[in-house]
Every structure is written in structure tokens, then in C-alpha cells.
Amino acid sequence: MTRLVGVYRADGGLWGELRYLAGHYLRGQSCTLCDITHSPFRRKAEWDHQVESLGIPFTLLHLNELDDSLAEFVGDRAACVLADTPEGRVMLLGNDNLASVDDDVSAFFALLRERLAP
Q1: pLDDT, position 40
Q2: Under a CB-based contact definition with an 8 Å cutoff, are residues 34 and 10 in contact?
């Protein structure tokens, strides 16, 4: 496995963040991966610690940061986590899987490690 990629169900950048916050607080919309990786104001320290202990590069991307092939692979399945492998891309966790951990970083990494196990 060459890397893991988490794809937020939101655009990045100032306008993307503002649209996300408006949708989140005014319309109750959310991104399950955002809820796992971030507190209301910044990325969770536990997230960074868990990523470091994984030993696999883990990239987080917003929808507007995806290259064409990654955008085609993800389609409408964001938020999600996928793996780039020598054989190609593999979807590891979909939005329903991410929702099942209820914003809990430890539970997310337990589920991820389960999916990564041979």
C-alpha cells in the first residue's frame, strides 16, 4: 500500500470552508470525515498522533483538490477513505462506515486497522 487518502465531503479553501460552516450550522449538513478529524476549530491532536503511528502516508483532500482520476474513482461516494496500492485504488471506508464511528478518532482507527489487516 503506497498511501491512504481521506476525501472530505466538502470543498477546501476559504469559500469552501465558509459554505461548509453555513451548511453545517444553518442546515444541519455535515461531513463524517470532517467530524472525525476536526474539532470545531482545528484538527484533533489525536488524529495526528494516530496517523503518525499508522506508518502509512495518509493524505486528506477536499473535493476541489482531487485530480481527475481520483475524482472519477470517488464519484459521489465522499466522504470516504481509500488506499492506493500497486494494483490500483481500493475503497476502504465509505460514508456509512465513517458515520458508524460517531466522530471518535480511536474508533475510526480501530475500524481502519481492521480493514487493513490481511
Answers
A1: 76
A2: yes
CA distances from 1 to 18, 34, 45, 70, 88 (A): 34, 24, 25, 16, 9
CA nearest 60: which of 1, 116, 5, 3?
5
18 has a pLDDT exceeding 70: no
Domain with 74 in it: 3-116
Set of cell numbers at residue 12: 477546501
- Please report which confidence band the pLDDT of residue 33 belongs to, taking 50, 70 and 90 as the band edges: very high
Whether residue 22 is predicted with pLDDT greater than 60 in this model: the reply is no
Tally of domains within the chain: 1
Tallying the residues shown for the chain, one arrives at 118
Q: What angle do CA 22, 94, 39 make, to 5 degrees?
A: 40
CB atoms within 10 A of CB 43: 13
What global pTM score does this model have?
0.87
